[in-house]
Design brief:
Elements: H1 14-19, H2 34-39, E1 69-75, E2 81-84, E3 91-92, E4 101-105, H3 111-119, H4 135-138, H5 151-164, H6 170-175, H7 181-191, H8 200-207, H9 211-214, H10 218-261, H11 270-279, H12 286-290, H13 293-337, H14 344-351, H15 355-359, H16 363-418, H17 427-433, H18 435-438, H19 447-475, H20 487-495, H21 510-537, H22 542-546, H23 549-552, H24 557-566, H25 570-573, H26 579-597
Helix pairs in contact: 7-10, 10-13, 11-13, 13-16, 16-19, 19-21, 21-26
Amino acid sequence: EEEDDDGEDGLPTAAAAVKDPYGPPPLTAPVVDVSAAEATPTPEPSPPAAGLPSEALPAPEGGGAPHRVRWEVFPSPHGPPYYYNPVTGESRWVLPTGPFDVIVPGKKKDDSGATASSNAGGRGSPPRRRASAEPGAAEGEGASCGPGSSSSSSSSASSSGDEGAGDRPAGAGAKRKPLSRLEAFREMLLERGVGCFDRYETWLPRLLGDARFTVVPLMERKKTFTEVARLLGKQQRQVDAGARLAACKGFAALVAAARERGLLSGARNAAEALSKMAKSDLGADKRWGAAAPKDRERMLAEVLKEEGKANQEEAITAVKAFRAMLQEAIIGPAESAGADPPPFGEARRFLRGDARWKAVVDIAERQRLYGDVASEAARRIHAKRRARAEDEDELTSKRFHSRRSEAEKRFREMLDEHLKAPLELTWPEARMLMREALKRSPPDLDEVSCEIIFGEVKSEDGERRLAAFADALRRAPVETLGPELSFDQAKAVAVTKLPGGEARLQGLPPQDLRRCWEDWRRVRLAEAAQAFEAWLQGCVFLEEAASNPEALRARGPAFEALCKRLSTDARYVRLSPVPRERIKLIVGRLEEAAEERA
């Protein structure tokens, strides 16, 4: 039944447009697919297939380029806009994107036009509301695209928007300066009250019906929405920061007033100071409520910290001045005189008129400081006294030791002169021999000192004789005096090398002589072991025993025969005092020879 008035695509035809010069909206509302519309990428602009046919483009008389086709955009009752051609009377949902299409805002209709539009719906069409263009929706450079239109249509429409701006009513341009698409889009977001933390997906369904939203390309919408939201957030943060700064400045003035009144004195923490201020008239001040509780507590804590630091520095300065006063008036004169500092009561009577004394308010603190300074001064005074006494004692000792050293030297000369062999004598025997000489002994030496000096001379004589014996053992050749000899044999050989012979060793304790011989033999055995090991490296006796497994274990006839052949050499005999070490050296050389044979 609707074929008389409508075309095949469901849109009003030119015949229907004659009845309604302003054009009714299409009969069927478009299906809005938000996700598809937002997910569709913006392709490169291309000549669209949609638009007027070639026969709808009337050519001007005399030839030339065809005229541009005017399309008017109107809001529909369904929300999205529709487009109307006043020349052909065609209405459509899809944005016209022909090469000569021009999109302009639709003009307001009068009452007669509204009546004609309401009667032109066709026999089967339901009654429609009059589509009037809102002033806010008609502003902008380009036309708004309906749901389902491609991004290429938006770009094409934006390119032709400036050319169609000349068809707008003169009154609209005089009232308000035209806005660009993005500026109109931002203005729309601000008008609708978009918040700084709002999401684009939440607002999308509510913005699809606004021409200022649909005229912006798909790829620019979310970006512009995010920029506006971020800008709103930045502005809100700036406003909040300014308000907070102003509130903090006002509260700082309250804190200064509280400090002048003494409300902060004695407060141990910020909570206690806040309680005192809240109970006073400052708590009713509007500047008190303007500041946040955390800011009030933070600012008071900082003020108390600064006051505590200032008080601490003042106390330190007062203590330093108090100590300097004590050192100047009490301690210095006492140290100069070498006397102990006076008691605290006497110092208090002398210093209580000084301002530095009064700077330390606490009496107990004054007494403690004076006690510390007086104790330090007393220690220094006692240390000086002790050092002076030690110096005197050292000087006296040096004088005494100097005189004693001289006396000892003369007594030693007397012993060397009258006793030829002090090691063979005892002190009573030596005193008997030196009876006449002792009468001339130095007066600084008593009987005990003389006996001690005689013992020292006797020990020195014994050390010299032992050194001579050890030197005789070392100078004897190894062929005549080897480590295999016993103590008596070695002693007999060494005596022949001594300048005084057997008499040189008289008076020496036998254990001292044996200890000297053991030290010498230990050194000679080490030298003999090295010589024996070096001799085994080239010994030809080891070839036969090296192939015998029993000989490698230091047993068996082969090993005994080897030892018997080796005993003919003096280097084997010199290691007789250490047979285990000698066998170890032999077995080690046999193992090396066996490895060489293998």
